[in-house]
Structures are given as structure tokens and as C-alpha cells.
Design goal:
single chain, alpha+beta, Bactericidal permeability-increasing protein, domain 1, five-stranded antiparallel sheet, four-stranded antiparallel sheet, 38% strand, biological rhythms, Haemolymph_juvenile_hormone-bd, signal, Protein takeout
Length: 253
Amino acid sequence: MLFAVCSVLLFACLTLGGANGASNFPAELPRCHHGDTECIINVSHTLVRQYARTGYAPAAFPQVEPFLIKRFDISDGRSGSLSLKLNFRDVNVEGLSGVKFDRAVGFDSNPATSKFEMYGAFPKIILRGKYLADGRILILPIRGDGDADITLHNPKFSVKFKPATQVRNGRTYLSVDKLKVLVEPQKMNIRLTNLFNGDQTLGTNLNQFLNENWSDVWSELQPSVHVAIADVMKSILATLFKRFAYEDLFLED
């Protein structure tokens, strides 16, 4: 449901600046020194605001407003009150360009020992697309195949990344080793159409139940949501790391 919420955050911070003339990173982008977290936050805001609707191919930065997700799956098979499998497809995510980075940690010159952490929030994230649902809430079976409209209000996030490094021709290249994402909305609204084969009464009651108990629903689903977010972030970061050495992403100290 949410994996695009954080998919560009760490990416934006790692594409935070071109290096000097010896680098193949786009020279027209703003630049930061290693460990200058204030600069990293400011430039990350600039990058997202300026290129959110167009992307920036020379830096492998994707379009993020809206951010199209072709497919993702979330499931929770635990024995609690909620057991639900959700399959989403053709989902447009709106609101990523409104990100506000509050804090950055690390981004030092040695990526093998540096921390890479970002913290912040969004005013609102809206996800619209198709869904397929199968599961139960309490003793009520859930079936649905239709349109999904999900709004996350003031979601806070943290992203922590640990790379693996490899030196080739005197330059350091990264790959994703560990990546941890946490997202905590202050409120969540859910609207699913065509529940129970179009039964309006059951569908309305279930949507009402989901919204009145959104915190419990989120608590049940968030472990698989965070895994889904991390998987997409790994894929996006892999594109960046294949194209540029770590030295390319910063000004020389």
C-alpha cells in the first residue's frame, strides 16, 4: 500500500550533488561536501521540488509526482483480528513532492563506516489505484476487486541504509546491504469500492469499520508494508549505484 512513500527519500539524498570536473555526475546540480547534513537536507528539498514532476534522467532520478506503481502486494497472515491479503496495481501516489526532511545523519567520506539516515514527514500521501482483497476481519470475510483510495495524513518517516562497498579502478561503488524503513501516519482514510460483489450495505459498513479502526489496521499491516517499501527503495538505489561511484555524488573535501 505504501511502498512509494519512502522510495525517493534516500535516493534524493544520495543524488545530492555533482562533484568536480573529473566526475561524470551532472555538474549543474547543487553540490555538498561529505557529512554536511544541513546542505544535504537543503539540496534534497531542491532536488525533489524541482524535478518531482519530470524526473532527471542524467542523475537517474525518477519522476515522483505522481509516482506510478505497477503492482505490489501486502499480506498479513497472523492470527489476530485482521487477516488480509491485498494486491494493488496501477497505483498513482501523490504528495511525495511535499516531503520535509528534518534531519540527516552520516553521509561521511567513507561509506563503509558512515551512517546513512534520513528523518522527516509529508503533509499528506494519497494512493489511488486498483485492488484485490481476500481475508477476514474478526469473523467477517473480506472480498473485493475494485478501486482503492487511501490517504495518509502527516506520515512521519525514517530511512536507515547500510551499503556494501566494492573498489574498482580506484573508485568505490555501493550496493544495498541493509535498508530499514519506518512510516507512521497520524491518521489513515481508506475507501475500497466493489466490496462483497458490489453489496452497498456491506461495503459501506466495512469501509466505515476500516476508517474507525485505522490505527489497529495499520498496526497489523505495517510490518509487511515496511518490507514492501524497502524492496522498492533497494531497486531504485541499485540504478543509482550502477551508474555512479560514491565519489561522484559529493564535492571533494
